[in-house]
Amino acid sequence: MEVAQPSPEELEGLKMENAGFISHEGRTYSTEENKVWEILCRRRMEKLPETACDAWLEGLEKLQMPMDRIPLFDELNERLKPLTGWTVRAVDGFIPAEMFFGSMAKREFPSTLEVRPMDSLEYLQEPDIFHDVFGHVPMHTNPVFADFVQEYGQLASELEDPDKFDALGRLWWYTVEFGLVDEGDEVKLYGSGHMSSFGEADNVFVGGPEIRPFDLDEVISTPFRIDIYQPVLWVAQGFEQLRESVAELRRRWAEELDES
Question: pTM of the full predicted structure?
């Protein structure tokens, strides 16, 4: 008897349906997986000390992020939680949006345990542990940024209007993923997409994207694509500006939130 095979869309749906939080206990990595991490760290740290923001660099140091092997979540959480109350939790694949934002509202950052293969060092469409941990987690040691992401997660968890949810998605993309910040009249990187991507980060400093001062209305109304270098980016004056952007959206959407 022939059994109908699921389409790619159906397979992706099944992956989402079955995804969720998993235990990281007992997870070990092969020599090659640790080598991938080491290569990626070494290559990114050739430039990040000069191009990354102070908060990310300080976070890397506070976490004592290993450069020669993939870090274990217990050791990261032991250093991260006392700083800002955040922890890293392991997930299996892409998780539903409500689970993703709900975890952030509780100061739990979802991360995959998988690392990209050796033949895909330059680019991987799906996030891996290098993107999630090396790219994202150091910023969660900064109290203001940590509050911004928690308050963002809380707001996203309360929304029901898909248009407003899309607006929040753009805010995430142009800040947490591909945000820039002004430090001493210099543009610095803090978005995880820049930290974990060679091409995207380099593109910022060779005149690739148009760089504009952070403007909440522009950010939440500008669609993005994941398959090209970003054509426009916004530079914040500080992380308090990001936190205030969430507060501003909560004020604008107060009536809907009160009804939900």
Answer: 0.88
